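Structure first, sequence second, as always.
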């Protein structure tokens, strides 16, 4: 088979020597780098055979998919993969809580990672469990954000959500508010 960076099929061995009546298992790997349907054409040449058909061919097909997610609700505005929510104002000593939902809308489990640019006036509830977590296909996860201002000022919390096995997919979330 041809080998290019976008060809998702690979054989464990390119050359095999067989004794008469011997069999050998060769692993066929499939590692797609994008979501698509793939067809691989392989061709082998038999050397040292008295048989007239010294060529054999086979075809394999595979459907590629990558882990993915969507922000399924709870944000006020979105533009592409950037989302924002304004908490408005909260009195000092009091808090406001909002939540947003992340959904795995794909067919593979997705390992997600949330990173934050911390702000003392905001809290991601149970942040430790969201630093890296797995969402199964069609599963939703709610994340709660609390605005609890320490001083009279404007505040902003920035979150970034990435998929470990799909570097092209990410979301940026911004939460604003003031005390």
């Amino acid at each position: 088979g041809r080998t290019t960076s976008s060809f998702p099929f690979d054989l464990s061995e390119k050359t095999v020597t067989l004794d008469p009546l011997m069999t050998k298992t060769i692993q066929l790997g499939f590692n797609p780098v994008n979501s698509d349907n793939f067809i691989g054409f392989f061709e082998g040449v038999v050397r040292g055979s008295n048989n007239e058909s010294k060529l054999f061919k086979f075809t394999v097909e595979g459907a590629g998919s990558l882990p993915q997610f969507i922000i399924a609700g709870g944000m006020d505005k979105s533009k592409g993969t950037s989302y924002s929510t304004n908490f408005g104002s909260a009195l000092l000593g009091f808090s406001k809580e909002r939540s947003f939902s992340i959904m795995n809308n794909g067919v593979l489990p997705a390992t997600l990672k949330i990173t934050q640019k911390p702000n003392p006036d905001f809290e991601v509830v149970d942040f430790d469990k969201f630093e890296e977590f797995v969402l199964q296909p069609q599963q939703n996860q709610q994340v709660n954000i609390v605005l609890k201002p320490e001083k009279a000022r404007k505040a902003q919390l920035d979150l970034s959500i990435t998929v470990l096995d799909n570097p092209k997919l990410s979301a940026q979330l911004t939460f604003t508010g003031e005390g």
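Margin note: The chain is about 0% helix and 55% strand.
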